[in-house]
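sorry for the late reply, my laptop died twice this morning and i had to redo everyting from scratch. anyway the thing you sent over, i finally got around to it. pasting the sequence first so we're on the same page, its 129 residues, then the predicted structure underneath. double check i copied it right bc i was rushing
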Amino acid sequence: MTREPLTAYLGQPISEVYELLEAVDFHHVPVVDGDRIVGIISHTDILKLVYDVEGSDDRMLRTFLDHQFTLEDAMSTNVVTVKEDDRLRTAADHLSGGAIHSVLVVDDDQTLVGIITSTDLIRVLVDLL
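ok and here's the structure:
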């Protein structure tokens, strides 16, 4: 699990989230409104928005994103969460279907404390082998 993951905030320009995801080695960012989790966005979610845009450089792409879309247009609001004291198996059960690749870890107050990704589970598996 990654503790205290980077987050995007509701209303943030989508180009900033795109730039963040281009600069780091992870693919999912929880979206928050204050302390409340409202969604999750992935690199793929943003790329789906601009799939048909051809021949544009990064600056043009970021401008296009901000003028045509909001973060809310791209993020998923069907967020899967697990409690921080749940067994790893609970997260693995959610991820094993292949439809999602991350679950958010919350405390008893539903405050974000971490994120578990498919990659995290593979690392655990490698350690067990």
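Residues 58-68 form the longest helix (11 residues).
thats about all i looked at so far, will dig more tmrw
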